């Protein structure tokens, strides 16, 4: 019984975890048109995003603590220890969830081409940021991520040729 509760609690805590890594795209954002803006990176600052408290850790910890405490001693002692176990388990479960969902991130200060300045916090990805480098902001579905701007070598080249318009010729009758 205890083993099943432990497995259920681990599943609940892991299900509450969701990535915010800028290198991972959400399934719903695939094949959607995104808005892209050019900017220059002004500064980078490491920050920590506080862990979530969805309640899954507290509920799971409370159940495990109540079951573990309830199995101690006789009927009366088991009830008291079960209640104390539930409270302690809930507090511990909440702390575990919060710690497990804490994330290293970076705060990026950007200078937009129109002169406006913006700041964004995003999860720390594989990028190594350098102030002064060109970046792009990609916004999809209300979520924005910053990426290094692709290297360009002047004006974009295209092999596309505009079709020539020809005046239709009408027969005269």
From TrEMBL:
It comes from the Bacteria. InterPro entries: Gly_zipper_2TM_dom. One of its GO terms (cellular component) is outer membrane. This is 17 kDa surface antigen. Residues 156-173 have a biased composition (Low complexity). Residues 56-97 form the Glycine zipper 2TM domain. The keyword Signal applies. Pfam families: Rick_17kDa_Anti. Residues 1-15 form the signal peptide. Residues 151-173 are annotated as: Disordered. It comes from Roseateles depolymerans. The keyword Signal applies. Keywords: Signal.
């Amino acid at each position: 019984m205890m083993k099943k509760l432990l497995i259920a609690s681990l599943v609940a805590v892991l299900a509450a975890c969701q990535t915010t890594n800028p290198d991972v795209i959400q399934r719903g954002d695939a094949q959607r048109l995104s808005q892209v803006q050019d900017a220059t990176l002004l500064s980078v600052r490491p920050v920590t995003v506080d862990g979530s408290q969805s309640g899954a850790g507290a509920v799971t910890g409370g159940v495990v603590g109540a079951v573990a405490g309830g199995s101690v001693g006789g009927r009366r002692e088991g009830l008291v220890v079960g209640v104390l176990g539930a409270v302690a388990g809930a507090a511990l479960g909440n702390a575990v969830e919060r710690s497990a969902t804490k994330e290293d991130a970076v705060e990026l200060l950007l200078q937009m081409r129109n002169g406006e300045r913006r700041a964004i916090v995003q999860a720390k990805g594989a990028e190594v940021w350098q102030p002064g480098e060109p970046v792009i902001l990609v916004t999809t579905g209300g979520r924005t991520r910053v990426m290094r701007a692709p290297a360009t070598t002047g004006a974009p080249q295209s092999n596309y040729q505009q079709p020539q318009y020809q005046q239709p010729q009408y027969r005269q009758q």
